[in-house]
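Task card 7
Instruction: Convert sequence to C-alpha cells.
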Amino acid sequence: MAKPKVVNFQAQAEVWRENKNVIAEVITITPADATNWLACNTNNRPVRKRHVEFLAREMLEGNWQVNGQAIIIAEDEKVLDGQHRLFAIIESGKSIQSLVVYGITVEAFKTIDTGIVRTGGDALSLHFKDAPLYAIKAAATAVIWCHRLESGLGRHVKISNTDAIEYVKKHRSLLQHAETLQGFPHESRPMPLGLGTALYEMFARKHEAQADDFMKNLYTGENLARTAPEYLLRAAFIRDAQSRAKLPQALKIRMVIKGWNWLRRGNTEASRQTIALQANDDPKVKIF
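Output:
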C-alpha cells in the first residue's frame, strides 16, 4: 500500500510565490493535514454541523470517491473551498484522496460555487435511463420520504446521491408507482407525485392489492362514498389547496396513513375525525 503523500505547507507556499502558477494534484489528506489547512484560516465561513456529519458518514461508509471536485487553497494558504470536507475528514478520523488545487487568488473566491448542484434526480437519471423523467424526479423525492417513514417519520436525514441510487436499485417499484400515479387525472391531484409515490411504496409493502385500490381511489376519487376515507382525504386536501395557510407535507402524510390504517382494520366508513390529527396521536407513525 502506497504511503500517503505528506503535504509540506511551507514548501508548497514557496512554490506558489516563486512560480505564481496554479497547481492541481490528487493527494491523500489525513486528519492531521486537514487540521493544518484549517488552522491557516482566520475567517472561516459558518460551519454547518449536519453537513459535516453527513460527509463524515459518507467517508466512513466508503462512499467517498475522487470525483474531480477539488479542495481549493489560496495563494496565502487559506482554504477557499472544501472547509466542510476538511472538517469531515477530522470528524471521521479517516484519510481520503481528493483533488487539491493550490495557488488560486483570494479574489477568485467570489466565483466559486456558482454552478448548479447535481440533484438526486440528476444522479438517478444516469442510472435508470429507461424510466421517464417525471418518474425519476418522483422517485428521488420518494426516497427521502421513505427513509423518514421507515424510521416512523423521524428527523430528516440527508440522503446522498449514492444512497438514492442504491435505494431505487433495491426498490425499482418506486418508478412503477410513480408511473401509475402519473396516469391518473392531473386535475385536483391530492398531493405531489413524489409524496404519493413514497406512500404507495410503503403501503404496497404491507398489501399490494389494497395499496393499488387505495391510491387509485385517493388520486381519482371515482365512485367513492362520501364516508370513504379516501374521499375525506381528497376533500381535505382540495380545501387545503385553496387555503393560504398550507398543511405541511409531513402532516398530510400522517393523515393519509390514518386513513390507510382505518381501512386496514376493516373499517369502510369514516368521518372527518377519522383522518384528523389529534393532540394525543403518537408522533411516531406506524403503517399497518
